[in-house]
Amino acid sequence: SIQAHVEMLSNQLDDLFKHVRSLEEERTKYRAVLSAVRRLPTEILGEIFSLLFPRVLADEDRAYLVDLGLVCHRWREAVLHMRSLW
Q1: CA separation for the pair 6, 34 (Å, rounded)
Q2: Which of 5, 19, 23, 40 sits 20 to 30 Å CA-CA off 60?
């Protein structure tokens, strides 16, 4: 019947709205984490990066280091200013 169909669609819409609210809550959590990372001084970020790599870099390690610097401007600065990485 039409009433049953309308009720089914209404339930589906309710489920979709719940899902959207859940996704928005997750996005808020991720933004909070990203905000904290963005406040890290470039020097600290570089120190963290230096912990990811061995003291002597192989060619593959250098390629990963270059990729790390492609993430964003700040990460590039952090990678380039850490002389110990190069």
Answers
A1: 42
A2: 40
Exposure string (b/e) for 32-64, b if CB count within 10 Å is 16 or more?
eeeeeeeeeebeebbeebbeebeeeeeeeeeee
Alpha-carbon 35 to chain mean position: 11
pLDDT tens-digit profile of 17-66? 999 999 999 998 888 777 777 788 988 988 888 888 877 777 887 888 88
Asked whether the CA dihedral 50, 67, 33, 15 is positive or negative, the reply is: negative
Select from 5, 27, 84 the least CA-distant residue to 51: 84
C-alpha to C-alpha distance for 6 and 9, rounded to whole angstroms: 5
Q: Degrees (nearest 5) of the Cα angle 72, 75, 77? A: 110
